[in-house]
């Protein structure tokens, strides 16, 4: 871990234009849609954090995408009923996913050259194709609301590579400068679907199948998101979890930081292949620091430590920190 002390943490607005998405480490906010973190979701966007998390339920009664931590039948969040910049920071909250996306689009109008932001979407109870809330409908909603703002799997392939894996291994990721004004979507399976004994077809596999099938049909540009392999593991976790036909569509990985670090997993695998590695609960790595209010020095040290361990994004509940802190960028690995 001695290399951590040698890393340079760069303020977000001074980051090297040539640094690629895969060559840097940034900070994200866990459950950024919660009102005790930010009064309005636009403030989460203002925060400087490079990853913001949304929890989404498919509601079988209303057939809508709900945004909430624990209520699948209602919305409980800081997203506003706002579709234009002038409406932000003061409208009624507790809106659905479409309104959260409207907020992003409105905020983007105010900040067209903003940092690249990853939106981590935990599909709490998974997709539900039977009620018209499957991967196709998710893509359609995101595309309708955000359009060309979204950096998609087809953008990574660039018409050159056959799969996301091939593109990542060639480090086809653009520079952070080229990604200004762009957003990316990461999809992970949710706690409810994982606990459901009758659900054996989770978000990650479902969206992986979706990418494979779109690519085969020549319509990959319709896909708006990157599915993530969830859970810290040593080696390549795709080999034991997925059919060979969809393994090459996973280039996002997401797991607990302490599990990676404390077990001395060889995380160089991720940076060597230019995969995006999201390390959650960054505060819990030994020596533990506050998960809500660490000092700026502690955050900088944790960012450097986990950058040396090949993380692309580290997340915690540090919503009280300044944009200068949450917008920090470190050299990865």
Automatic annotation (TrEMBL):
Transmembrane segments: none annotated. GO terms for biological process: lipid metabolic process. It comes from the Bacteria. Pfam families: PI-PLC-C1. One of its GO terms (molecular function) is phosphoric diester hydrolase activity. InterPro entries: PI-PLC-C1 (IPR032075), PLC-like_Pdiesterase_TIM-brl (IPR017946). This is Calcium-dependent phosphoinositide phospholipase C. It comes from Streptomyces adustus.
């Amino acid at each position: 871990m001695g290399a951590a002390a040698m890393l340079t943490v760069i303020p977000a607005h001074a980051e090297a234009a040539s640094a690629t998405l895969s060559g840097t480490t940034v900070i994200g906010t866990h459950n950024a849609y919660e009102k005790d973190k930010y009064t309005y979701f636009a403030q989460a966007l203002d925060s400087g954090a490079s990853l913001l998390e949304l929890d989404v339920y498919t509601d079988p009664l209303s057939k809508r995408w709900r945004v909430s931590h624990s209520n699948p039948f209602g919305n409980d969040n800081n997203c506003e009923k706002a579709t234009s910049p002038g409406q932000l920071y003061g409208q009624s909250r507790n809106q659905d996913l479409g309104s959260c996306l409207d907020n992003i689009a409105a905020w983007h109008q105010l900040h067209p050259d903003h940092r690249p932001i990853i939106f981590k979407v935990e599909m709490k109870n998974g997709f539900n194709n039977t009620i018209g809330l499957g991967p196709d409908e998710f893509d359609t909603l995101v595309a309708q609301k955000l359009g060309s703002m979204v950096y998609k799997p087809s953008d990574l392939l660039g018409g050159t590579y056959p799969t996301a894996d091939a593109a990542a291994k060639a480090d086809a990721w653009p520079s952070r400068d080229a990604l200004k004004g762009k957003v990316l979507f990461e999809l992970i399976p949710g706690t409810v679907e994982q606990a459901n004994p009758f659900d054996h077809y989770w978000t990650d596999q479902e969206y992986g199948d979706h990418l494979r099938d779109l690519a085969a049909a020549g319509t990959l540009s319709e896909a708006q998101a990157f599915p993530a392999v969830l859970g810290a593991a040593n080696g390549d976790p795709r080999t034991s979890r997925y059919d060979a036909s969809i393994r090459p569509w996973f280039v996002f990985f997401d797991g607990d930081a302490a599990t990676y670090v404390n077990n001395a997993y060889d995380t160089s695998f991720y940076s060597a292949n230019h995969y995006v590695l999201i390390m959650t609960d960054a505060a819990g790595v030994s020596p533990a620091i506050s998960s809500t209010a660490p000092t700026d020095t502690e955050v900088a040290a944790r960012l450097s430590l986990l950058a040396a361990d090949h993380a692309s994004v580290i997340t915690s509940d540090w919503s009280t920190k300044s944009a200068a802190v949450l917008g920090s960028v470190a050299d990865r690995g």
